[in-house]
Structure formats: structure tokens, C-alpha cells
Amino acid sequence: MAEKGLEWIDHLLDLGKKDQIAPEYLKLNPNGVVPTLVHDGTVIIDSSVICEYIDEVFPDPPLVPQDPAERARMRAWMRFMEEVPTAAVRVPSFNMVFLPRFDGLDDKQFLEAEAGPRPLRKHFFEKMGSTGFSDKEVKASMDQLRQTCERMHRALTAEGPWLMGEAYTLADIIVAPLIDRMADLGYASLWSDLPTVVDWYDRMQARPAFQTAFYEGTRVSEFLEMTPLNAGG
Ligand SMILES: N[C@@H](CCC(=O)N[C@@H](CS)C(=O)NCC(=O)O)C(=O)O
Predict the structure, then answer these.
(1) Which domain holds residue 18?
(2) Of 33, 128, 181, best ligand 1 pocket probe by most atoms within 8 Å of the beta carbon
(3) Which of 20, 133, 137, 170 is packed most tightly, with the most Cβ within 10 A?
(4) 228 within domain boundaries
(5) ∠146-2-44 over CA atoms, to 5°?
(6) From atom 6 of ligand 1, which residue's Cα is the shortest distance away?
(7) Distance CA 50, CA 68 (A)
(8) Do residue 45 and residue 2 come from a single domain?
(9) How many domains are there within the chain?
């Protein structure tokens, strides 16, 4: 929305207080996750769907290629980002940042109070348990995040300056929060030897829209104590 110069009203949900599974919110987003967009009374959920909707309704400046084949290539990037790094980034995020919220809960309390009520994340929470993901699971996630950075590096080396080449698209926008979260958790070393990715992230952060989206107070390192973990190298 910031890239399009649009104005909107932010409604901040406190996930620690479980605002995302409050009955009023579940009426808008039955998955019980953020974000949700309400535009002219229409409810749109899921980040990628929201991004494509905004681009269709507000086409200027375009963030999706006109050519169907290029559009398909961009969507393939988006699906990869959703399937691999988005899922992977949750593992270190929860272990390092969100787990302390469950301190003091035994397994039964954790399953009942934390896992059970979450429509989309019940099994994720069950798998994680009240003590967090294992080193093996953390390592697997780090491998997937590294794989993402290497894939970005190959694309940026072959084309650039953006993932789709000359055009800045939703593919860049969808991966940006994942890279930013890893930097926020102290894992910029995942791509520090990949100069194209370092440069891409620098240019991403320099965009005025990025500054608008990641305003002060949005990063986990700003408001939570983090416990370093052994990422398995
Ligand atoms: N596929 C969804 C996933 C959204 C999602 O996972 N949001 C997280 C925060 S980044 C959330 O709301 N988690 C709620 C919880 O952990 O209970 C989307 O892209 O909108």
C-alpha cells in the first residue's frame, strides 16, 4: 500500500494477548492470523492475496508484470516464498522470541491454552511444544533459509537488480519481511557472503515504502528479549 502511495488505517493486534483469535477478529479472518485487509467493506485475507488484490484495484505503479508468462514466473517466486522460507522463519522466531510467553505452562496447559484455540497453527504449536523446536528442526529451517538466499543470489546474478529483473514486483515484497526478520534475529550471516543479496536488502531498506511499513517498534528485537540459539552452524 505504501508503494502505491495509498492511505490506510492500521489496527494493531497484540498476538501475545491472542487478539488474533478473538471472536470478532475470527469473523474477519477465520484462520486467526494477521494480516487482514478491509477495503470498502470487503474483507481480504492472506498476505499474497492481499498484495495481488491491491495491485489489481490500484494498478499504479504496477507491481505485477503485464505479460502472463512473467506473471506466472513472479507467482512461482511467491509460492516458493510461502512454502519454504515463510514456514522456515517461524521456527527460529518462535524458539528465540515467542517461546518465553509460555514459560511456566506444563504440556497439558500449553496444549489446551495455546495450541488448541489456534485455527491455523494448532498443529504447529503441538509440534513445537512448550519447550520449543529441537536443534535438528532449527537446523533444517536454517538450511531452507540459506537455500532461499542462494536462489535469490542466482536470480540477482543472472538478472537483477530485482528478483524478476528490471521490474520491482511482489516477489521482492513478499520475501522482504522474511529477510528482515532473520536480520532482526541476528542471522544476517545467512547471506553476508552473497553480495547480490546484501545489495538487494540495502536497496529494499532504502525504499521509502519500506520505512513506512517497518516503522519503529515493529521489529521483535525492539520489544522482546531474545535467547540466542544454536543454529547448527
Ligand atoms: N498465510 C498467512 C500467514 C499469516 C501468519 O502466519 N501470521 C502470523 C504473524 S506473521 C500470525 O498471525 N500468527 C498468529 C499466531 O501465531 O497465533 C498470510 O500470509 O497472511
Answers:
(1) 1-59
(2) 33
(3) 170
(4) no
(5) 80
(6) 33
(7) 19
(8) yes
(9) 2
Is 135 within the bounds of a domain?
yes
Domain check: are 77 and 174 in the same one? yes
Nearest CA to ligand 1 atom 12: 33
The CATH number linked to 10 is 3.40.30.10
Reported as a single tens digit per residue, the pLDDT across 113-127 is 889 899 988 998 998
Amino acid at residue number 161: P
33 CA distance to ligand 1 middle (Å): 4
Residue 145 three-state SS? helix
Tell me the per-residue pLDDT of 79-115, one tens digit each, with 9 for 90 and over.
999 999 999 999 999 888 888 788 888 888 888 988 9
Cell numbers of 209, please? 515504502
The CA-based dihedral angle spanning residues 6, 7, 9, 15, taken in that order and rounded to the nearest 10 degrees: 40
What number does the ligand 1 atom closest to the CA of 125 have?
Answer: 16
pTM of the predicted model over 0.70: yes
**Whether 2 and 117 share a structural domain:** no
Domain boundary among 19, 42, 59: 59
Residue 159 lies in a domain: yes
Residues 29-86: tens digit of each pLDDT:
999 999 999 999 999 999 999 999 999 999 999 999 999 999 999 999 999 999 999 9
46 lines ligand 1 (CB under 6 A): yes
Q: Within this chain, do residues 74 and 55 fall inside the same structural domain, yes or no? A: no
Ligand 1 contact via 33 beta carbon (within 6 Å) = yes
Q: Which atom of ligand 1 is nearest to the CA of 33?
A: 12
Residue 48 lies in a domain: yes
